[in-house]
Amino acid sequence: xxxxxxxxxxxxxxxxxxxxxxxxxxxxxxxxxxxxxxxxxxxxxxxxxxxxxxxxxxxxxxxxxxxxxxxxxxxxxxxxxxxxxxxxxxxxxxxxxxxxxxxxxxxxxxxxxxxxxxxxxxxxxxxxxxxxxxxxxxxxxxxxxxxxxxxxxxxxxxxxxxxxxxxxxxxxxxxxxxxxxxxxxxxxxxxxxxxxxxxxxxxxxxxxxxxxxxxxxxxxxxxxxxxxxxxxxxxxxxxxxxxxxxxxxxxxxxxxxxxxxxxxxxxxxxxxxxxxxxxxxxxxxxxxxxxxxxxxxxxxxxxxxxxxxxxxxxxxxxxxxxxxxxxxxxxxxxxxxxxxxxxxxxxxxxxxxxxxxxxxx
Length: 361
Hints:
By secondary structure, this protein is mainly alpha-helical. It folds into two domains: 109 residues, no CATH class; 168 residues, no CATH class. It is built from 16 helices and two strands. It has a two-stranded antiparallel sheet with strand order 1-2.
């Protein structure tokens, strides 16, 4: 099971010459002595030949001519060939480091491939993964140190423990938890469950959109969203209208994507186990799968949610770029069919939307 290299979007991971320089710079930064020793080992046979050749032919002595010149030229040729071969073999070996390290990570972590249904669910969060070069074919969106056995999380060196992987830095649990608590006030599995309940209810983007739309800033908000998204104010108003007996779309696509992303982060931070995370993700996916019939409709709603939440044109443009890249990529999420199901009965009906007639312009 191979995915893209974290931070890169090429799927699956490939061995590329363009990565060689960055890999070697990272190796020098993490353990310069070891990096220098590896460089010497690759050309060691050539250095041995050189060490023998210098005294044998008195390279730095007075120049002579004769039979020894032929031997010197042969030795020099052997030295050049061995040096070039060492450099090439070392480069071939080093450029495969990202692939070997990811293979080792999956083997040591014991994380297996997802099912077709699970890939459908993860595809609802694929755009945000593609934007950062994260993983979208596992519940984990990136590599974490606590997924590995304790003995495999670092390796000894003269300067102290060094990272287990060169091309794949591992997230620390403490850092993930601190970020979650700072951004979402999630510090435990219980907090994760409460976040999901609130984020799919009165604390959802949909609830906020509905409240602002019917408040004093409603017209101003519509004008701003229209400018950011290029949609008409009529199109944006329709998000708050029931369609064909179905609840209003509001920003439920954006809510589904947001909750799935946070649940995956809580799982990576080891707040919730895999079974709990999948249960919460199934719950979060219900509004999107019940209200939208295609990926185009779903991502269009998420895009409006990005504009509403960020209030920045730059964020909308970044969303457009990453979504276009995802659609043209080889990622599995770009090919899975859109999952559909009935509208969930628990979907909140905010004040003023019940039984409202459809606005037929």
